[in-house]
Amino acid sequence: SDDSLMQIAPASPPPPADDLSTYQHRRFIGLAGVVLPWACYGMARLRPTAPLPPADFLDSVSAYFYTQGAPVFVGTLVALSVFMFFYQGYDNEHRGKDRVAALIAAWTALGVAFLPTRAPAGVECPSWWTPLLGKAHVASATTLFLTFAFYALVLFPKTAPGVKAAGRKLVRNVTYYICGGLILAAMVWAIFAHMNDRPVFAAEATMLTAFGVAWLVKGRLDWAAAAAAR
């Protein structure tokens, strides 16, 4: 028999020699983004907050700060912030950009978590909340999503000098560009929705999902899935 057929596919390919983080680290970051909006909704539906309708989506993901989904919302963002604080990227000419972007994402994720938006209609704002906090929340969220787009469109598609993307790398790059484009398009969608006093939950969920998919692909989730399927 062919011994190669009996070998189990590795959960991930060998990391590049200059990789200072791990594939699993990137998968955790991606998973946090994909799970966040749906986990908040699910928790708020299981443990409703009066007078909010339990089956309805709130106007934004951030509005779940005022529901029983708050622990999921804050906890996931804090976990994402920690992952980004310790993300090192690659030991090459782009390392400085990697670290600056990671630190910006880490701090702004904390801003989104602890500088809340205005409470949903029907729910009383805390006595300590001010419109300035709401503006700081929007600024933090905008910067965070722009950083997500920067990773997907600029940093993730990088290849070694003189090397042209091909094969799996080319497919991954196309995925990064699609995810980055979705983030920017959904940001425009959210801006227009906000200006017209319309819900932005769907736009934010799109941005978070696109961000998460980009990081999962960067973490070679396809390899892990192929290995698990064997």
Our measurement of the CA-to-CA distance between the termini, rounded to an integer number of angstroms, reads: 18 Å
The overall average pLDDT, rounded, is 86
**Total number of β-strand segments?**
0
Kindly provide the radius of gyration, computed on alpha-carbon positions and rounded to a whole number of angstroms: 19 Å
Low-confidence stretches: 1-9
Q: Rough shape?
A: elongated
Number of helices: 8
Strand pairing plus helix content: what structural class? Answer: mainly alpha
Query: What string gives the helices and strands in order?
Result: HHHHHHHH
Beta-strand share of residues: under 5%
Largest sheet: none
Helix coverage percent of residues?
55-70%
Description:
The chain is mostly helical. The protein has 8 helices and no strands. Helix 2 (23-46) runs antiparallel to helix 7 (201-218), helix 3 (70-85) runs antiparallel to helix 4 and helix 5 (131-155) runs antiparallel to helix 6 (167-195). The two termini are 18 Å apart. The model is unreliable at 1-9 (pLDDT under 50).
Compact summary:
By secondary structure, this protein is mainly α.
Main attributes of the structure:
single chain, 63% helix, 230 residues, mainly alpha
